[in-house]
Amino acid sequence: MSASNLQITGLCKRYGDFIALAPIELDVAQGEFLTLLGPSGSGKTTLLSLIAGLAQPDDGQVRINGVDVTYGAPYERDIGMVFQNYALFPHMTVAENVSFPLQMRKTDAKATRDKVMQALEMVHLPHLAGRYPRELSGGQQQRIALARCMVYRPSIILMDEPLGALDKKLRDQMQLEIKRIHRDLGTTIVYVTHDQEEAMTMSDRICLMNAGSIAQLGTPADLYFRPKSVFVADFLGESNLLDAVVTGRTGDQVQISVQGGANVHAMAYDSVIRDGKPVKLMLRPQNLQIHDGPPDGSINGGTLSAKLTDIMVTGSMTKLYLQSHISNAPPLVAAFPTNRLGRQYEIGQTLGLSWLTADAVAIAG
Amino acid sequence: MSAPIIVLLLVMLVYPVGQLLLLSVHNNSGFTLVEYKRLFASSVYVDVLLITLKVSLWTTFFSVLTGYPIAYLISSLTRERKNRLLFWVLLSFWTSFLVRTFAWVVLLGRNGVINQVLLGLGIIDRPLSLLYNFSAVIVGMVHALMPLAVLTMLSVMENIDRRLPSAAATLGARPGTVFWKVYFPLSLPGVAAGALMVFVTAIGFFITPTLLGGRHQTMITQLIIDQVMQALNWGFAGAISVLLLAVVLLVFLIYDRMVGLSTMAGGSSAARGPKQGGRWSRKLGDVILTTLGNATDAVIGLFPKRRKRAANGESLTLRVVVILLLVFLSAPAFLMIPLSFDSASGLAWPPRGFSLQWYRQIADSPLWMQAITRSMLVGIGTGFLSMLIGTPAAFLLVRGGMKGKAAMLAFILAPIVVPRMIIAVGVFYFFAKIGLIGSSFGLVLGHTVVAVPYVVITMMAVLRNYDTRLDLAAHSMGARPWATLRRVTFPILSAGLMSSFLFAFATSFDELTIALFSSGGLSTTLPKQFWDEITMQISPVIAAVSTCLFAFIAVLIGVADRLRRRSLAS
Predict the structure, then answer these.
(1) Distance (Å) from the C-alpha of residue B181 to the closest C-alpha of chain A?
(2) Which of B248, B228, B149 is nearest to B429 (CA)?
(3) How far is Cα of residue B422 from the mean position of the Cα atoms in its chain?
(4) Between residues B179 and B468, which one has the greater pLDDT?
(5) Which residue of A50, A51, A54 is the best one to mutate when testing the B interface, meaning the one whose CB has the most B CBs within 10 A?
(6) B65: closest CA of chain A, how far (Å)
């Protein structure tokens, strides 16, 4: 990826006493797909509005292609935006909607017509040019909103939960569509969502936000396998978090003592994790091996035994809920691809759980 | 369930108005067109019609023009600030036309505020005669009807998606273009509805032209009053009524053709989009709006750019304009307050001294006190009767699954469409025959006819927001229909019921037209007493009464607002 396209330095925004956005730094490279992910109220939409120029920051800077646009009007920025409920103009036809940004740029009539048709073909809806938005389905409106944004090739496209109103199947389909268009055009996309799965599938990088600050910025794999905080581990996918204390560190590996007595090894990617520190041991449910009875001692990792309290078949995965014998320990979840064996387990039975050191991560807690 | 309302409208609207219209073509010797011949024989009556149309058109134009920025700003504000601005509009809306018109009589008088201020500043050396001319009528009428325009436009503007202007800005549109090409076309159904409401109200107006206009500003409803009260010529009054009704129906017909009446009932007009006009008219409209947009942007570009832009709808110019307009709306009624404590008797500005003598005069006058009592009684009676008749009809219209709902709704709304004067004269004729003139019961009946449509509209809105699954939940737990109604439905709807009661009460309390004819002799209502006084002589007593009415309305709005908040909170 080439030079940075969008540069944000020290940007912050308050509404009265409420800090919507604490000062943050963010660089987005040309052609990158960056997702702002976070629970509602985490500041992701505020950040997007500041980039778009729909709100004004209290301090900091926004640069697009090296130009300071912090206090510039939206129409002076080289951006496009896809809104949550599409914001198609109800009094204009599809073609008029898509040609609107071109007219604003004083494109001549012939070029406008060609570009509009091109954009509509890109979203496979050229036959709807004469319709009004109210005559389209949700998915079709979504595509038109995309076409209206792509048609003038802005250097950055901002998307505010664009798939939020669609049902699951359509959403999956549109995710692929947006990825394809992103690949074809090479535009930078800043995408807001609260759906972690959507963020994982689509992004080059995810900027996970919490309470107005960046919790972690990195590739989906970074965030999933090397979370820096309990919040990140918890937000992205399911995880078991066990209380533990560090007893020694060598390189990326630490020795920890898990509450209840077991001493195990785990990976530590954060340099603040050292001797004597309380940490959380993160184990992803699908990385737990299940044994009938206590597991043997030959495993390069750790073991636990726990009582089965519940079984849930969630389509492709089967989840086992377990309670370890240690008092106050949180319930554990183990998951494996659904197969006929799932039926063998009985509630109340004691099972052994084991994991590999490479899959165990110590997080500063 | 809807039987009472249908009976009421048949007896109190269809029959009397039908009778009146029949009288215009029927006299002792049978069918005749003599009244219509007389109507068009000389240019006098046609001139009055033309003046009426002229006054109504100008009133409509200025009301919509000045109402637009107010509605625009209010619709863009957050709830807290929206309510604050809306209060001033509502206060004007609910303050009696009589009070507000009287305020203009005082303001524009020879010794009135405006002349005195201009004299004081040395701009003029002799008082100007500002009253009894065309401009005075237009100022008074615009002042009277602008709140109606604001509220009608507001209902459409609130449904315009606020992200659309933002979207246009991100797509590269400058503020002027955003407004003219995106916002304005979407608000047009509201403008049309506002214009319609103002026009049909203006055309039936008589208070303002009588008090502020001269001989040349006589309007058509004043003719009807003259024919009924002085000439006692029912046939001719009927003929004029037919003319008035025809004009109003024609206006509705044109509106329906161009905009569609359905936009008025739903409010979902923004989502529906405009009717598709011809290709050329669309293109022309687009060119005009584009030019307006570019021109506005060019003008905005002349001003130096501030580093920090104001947020949406926060433009300083707009706020100043709106505040000035709201001052124009509210100030006249407020001026009554100092004048009502004046110790001199000329209603001259500035007031001299302080005295409570005018309030004491009201308290000592049996006429005023009886009128107040009567208005209260009739208002409360109208409130209850309208609720009793209107609520079941609203239930039926919202929940019932019958055919012809639209026709039924149109019928129920007819008392709003038909000019009040025609209903009043019809009811007068009917009451005279059955001996109900001057009775409180008659007045309650008459007022209920004009109040019940508002009750139905309010209750329909309330019922649409009511989640019927709550009733089903109550049924599932074993509650029988009556218990469900008493324990679940009514408690939740109570705020809505209360506010439609207040709506009906206020309509009756402020009603003059029907009372003008049907409350006779000593037993008048407050508006009728006010009217009799004001047309006889202008005294500070009226300023005192105005102040009382104004305060009373402010309290009512406060109560209604409290109720609304409570229903939102639950």
Answers:
(1) 10
(2) B228
(3) 17
(4) B179
(5) A54
(6) 22
What pLDDT does residue A209 have? 95
Let me know: does A139 contact A172? Beta carbons within 8 Å: no
The half-sphere exposure of B349 on its side-chain side, counting CA atoms within 13 A, is 22
pLDDT tens-digit series, residues B541-551: 888 999 999 89
Residue B167 lies in a domain: no
User: Count of alpha carbons within 13 Å of A295, Cβ hemisphere only?
Assistant: 20
| pLDDT, chain B, mean | 86
This complex has an ipTM of: 0.80
Enumerate the domain spans of chain A.
Answer: 4-230, 238-364
Residues 63-122 of A with CB under 8 A from B: 71, 73-75, 77, 79-81, 83-85, 87, 89-91, 100-101, 103-105
**How many whole angstroms separate alpha carbon B246 and alpha carbon A322?**
81
pLDDT confidence of residue B273: 44
Q: Is residue B126 part of a domain?
A: no
Topology given in CATH for the domain delimited by A4-230: Rossmann fold (3.40.50)
% of chain B with per-residue pLDDT over 90: 35
pLDDT band at B270 (very low <50, low <70, confident <90, very high): very low
**CB–CB contact B170 A85 (8 Å):** no
pLDDT of residue B478: 82
- Beta partners for residue A213, in sequence order: A210
Any idea which fold A238-364 has?
A: OB fold (Dihydrolipoamide Acetyltransferase, E2P) (2.40.50)
Torsion of CA A207, A210, A212, A213, to 10 degrees: -60
- Give the mean pLDDT per block of 10 residues along chain A (365 residues): 80 91 94 94 92 92 92 88 90 92 92 94 92 92 92 92 87 90 91 92 94 94 92 91 89 85 84 86 91 72 87 88 82 87 78 89 87
Query: In the β-sheet with A317-324, what is the strand arrangement from edge to edge?
Result: A289-292, A350-356, A301-314, A317-324, A332-337
Chain B residues contacting A, CB < 8 Å? 161, 163-164, 166-175, 177, 181-182, 185-186, 270-274, 290, 307-309, 311
Closest CA to A105 of A130, A150, A148, A75: A75
- Strand order, beta sheet including A205-210: A79-82, A156-160, A188-193, A33-37, A205-210, A213-218
Domains: count for chain B? 1
Q: In CATH, what number is assigned to the domain containing residue B7?
A: 1.10.3720.10
Distance from CA of residue A206 to its chain's centroid? 5
CB < 8 Å from B in window 6-45 of A: none
Q: pLDDT tens digits for B69-106?
A: 999 999 988 888 888 899 899 999 988 899 999 999 98
- Asked whether residue B107 is domain-assigned, the answer is no
| pLDDT, tens digit (0-9, with 9 covering 90-100), for B421-443 | 999 999 998 988 888 888 889 99
Q: Which domain holds residue B528?
A: 1-23+356-536
List of chain A residues whose C-beta atoms are within 8 Å of the C-beta of residue B274: 91
